[in-house]
Write a structure and sequence with these properties.
By secondary structure, the chain is mainly alpha-helical. Helices cover 57% and strands 9% of the residues. The protein has eight helices and two strands. This is Nuclease HARBI1.
């Protein structure tokens, strides 16, 4: 009986130490503002000022909130890293945010739901409505990139998913994992 108590105490201490380590690491991630701009863009695919504006918009226009354990910044950084930078749990879990896969999934889902809020959608996604707007965009593409007649760009990315039970082969990509191939249009 004494041995069982010792094992349980050791297990509880081990669990507590892992949680404490994750909590401490998350606290240091709040100092992400100290990260050099180029490294920040490499990890999260947008610059710090855009990130700050995004966090503020999410705070003001949606119900997305942080908690004591996972601040709003960390939730957004986790989603950005997962959705835009890696597309894979394998690279993000334990490496960049020190979050479990379950917590990462929850953060990504919460941020994506918040980004789909109608107020944010209308603010962040705007297609040129008039001939003048389209002409201005064409001129900008011509001036910056020497591409005539362009008003937008299209790109694809692989969003990692859990292996589906049916038609598994249809979701296995050339990069060696299961994903959805998502196409985006940017103007």
């Amino acid at each position: 009986m004494h041995t069982l108590r010792l094992l349980r105490a050791a297990h509880n201490e081990s669990v507590w130490l892992r949680r404490q380590k994750r909590y401490n690491y998350r606290q240091t991630m709040e100092s992400v503002e100290d990260m050099p701009e180029l490294l920040f863009v490499e990890h999260f695919r947008l610059n710090k000022s855009t990130f700050r504006r995004l966090c503020n918009d999410l705070r003001v226009h949606t119900s997305l909130r942080g908690s004591k354990e996972i601040p709003l910044k960390i939730k957004v950084l986790t989603a950005l890293n997962f959705l835009l930078a890696t597309g894979s749990y394998k690279r993000i879990v334990g490496v960049s945010q020190n979050l479990t896969q379950r917590t990462t999934s929850r953060c990504v889902r919460q941020v994506v739901d918040a980004l789909n809020h109608p107020t944010l959608m209308s603010k962040l996604i705007q297609f040129p409505q008039t001939v003048q707007e389209r002409s201005l965009i064409k001129e900008e593409f011509q001036r910056k990139y020497n591409l005539p007649g362009v008003i937008g760009c299209s790109d694809c990315t692989h969003i990692a998913i859990v292996k589906p039970a049916e038609e598994e082969h249809a979701f296995y990509n050339r990069k060696g994992y299961h994903s959805l191939n998502v196409q985006m249009v940017c103007i």
